[in-house]
Design brief:
The chain folds into 2 domains: 7-19 and 127-207, Protein of unknown function (DUF541), domain 1 (Translation Initiation Factor IF3, 2-Layer Sandwich); 22-124, Protein of unknown function (DUF541), domain 2 (Alpha-Beta Plaits). Helices cover 28% and strands 38% of the residues. It has helices spanning 36-56, 103-112, 128-154, and strands spanning 7-18, 22-33, 64-78, 81-97, 117-124, 164-167, 196-207. The strands form 2 sheets. Strands 3-4-2-5 form a 4-stranded antiparallel sheet. It has a 3-stranded antiparallel sheet with strand order 1-7-6. The protein is elongated and about 85 Å long. It starts with 6 loop residues before the first strand and ends with a strand.
């Protein structure tokens, strides 16, 4: 009797915790005035002051980008009718910090030189793709080890080369990469970046 080859499906997983080495901050300047030109001019002056302070700290020009610039009217309700009271101008910058030990100092310098709003702070890994490829290899090895364990239990011969390998795509999630901070006097704002977990998963199909 000829026994047809049978298939075994396993899933391999692997992960690696790494320290972030790059940070992104979104902060900027918000101004308001009954006159739109005055609000825009005040914002321009403070924004330029902010940018110059960051450049003097050694942050490259290319690492200070405008994320958004908006100007819109503000209304209040008076006797049941909306009345224009002021104009608000908002200029948000996206700042790349390649030395994460300087994050607190950058935040302090920004707020000392015109910034009055912050939107987000995130930490990431600049070599994410390289690390992920290594973790992906470990996931394949993990799957093979599972297949060998199953074959050993069943006392069957496993063909070591899988007939199908499928990477399980998933939304990239860097773990708790956002953190909060509070302004302090006479001290750099304390920032505590957290480790980032890089995960890979594969589906493997073997013959036995």
């Amino acid at each position: 009797m000829v026994i047809q080859n049978r298939k075994m499906l396993v899933q391999g997983t692997a992960k690696k915790d790494v320290q972030p080495d790059i940070a992104y901050i979104q902060l900027g300047v918000v101004t308001s005035s009954p006159n739109v030109q005055e609000a825009q001019e005040e914002n321009r002056v403070k924004a330029n002051q902010l940018v110059q302070a960051l450049l003097q700290m050694g942050i490259p020009q290319n690492d200070v980008e405008t994320a958004s610039y908006t100007s819109f009217p503000r209304y209040t309700d008076q006797a049941g009718s909306p009345v224009l009271t002021s104009y608000e101008v908002r200029h948000i910058f996206r700042i790349t910090i390649r030395d994460i030990t300087e994050v607190g100092s950058v935040i302090d310098a920004a707020f000392e030189n015109g910034a009055n709003i912050t939107e987000s702070l995130s930490f990431e890994v600049s070599t994410y793709d390289k690390i992920y490829r290594h973790v992906l290899q470990l996931a394949v090895l993990n799957g093979y080890q599972k297949a060998c364990a199953i074959a050993g239990t069943l006392q069957v011969h496993l063909h070591p080369v899988p007939i199908k390998v499928e990477e399980v795509t998933q939304q990239t999630f860097f773990g708790p990469r956002y953190t909060t901070f509070a302004m302090q006097e006479k001290a750099s704002t304390p920032i505590e970046p957290k480790e980032i977990t890089i995960t890979a998963t594969v589906n493997l199909e073997y013959m036995y």
